[in-house]
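@channel sequence for tomorrow's demo:
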Amino acid sequence: MERRQLLAAGVAAAVTAVSATPSRAQARKSRDLVGSWLSTITATDPPLPPFNSLISFYADGVVTESISYFFPFPPPLGNLLFTTFHGAWERTGDHTLEVFLRGLVQNADTGAPIGIDNVRLSLRLDQDAGTLTGTFTTQLKSTDGTVLLAVTGNYSSTPITV
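structure tokens (generated this afternoon):
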């Protein structure tokens, strides 16, 4: 074979390989949990207005979540300021996982520490639909460990893609 024929054959093989490879969007849709997601959090007990968060799952079991940082609660809690949440996740089945997160909480008006918000998520990953759904429970504990607020509700997410 001449050099031109070899080069043409190589280019044709490369084009065939690329066209046989799924697109990034297809690969992303069927991908696993790892990555960043846009979530809607709906508290049902007590009922609170829904809000959004950004949550990122890492392959090593680490998870971070950012929520709207400022929440106005009625007294005695008042205006609260939350940090980014940090935690861990683990699989509990083929398409299910448990997540535990902690975030620091302070009084938004004075800056005084209030305590730690402890969040548990029980989630199901639907790779075909590209969704992550489930429930949450949270306990806001004071600096001495007293439960100041307990909330439960629903959690739903969609992946952030290019």
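heads up for whoever presents: The chain has one domain: 24-159.
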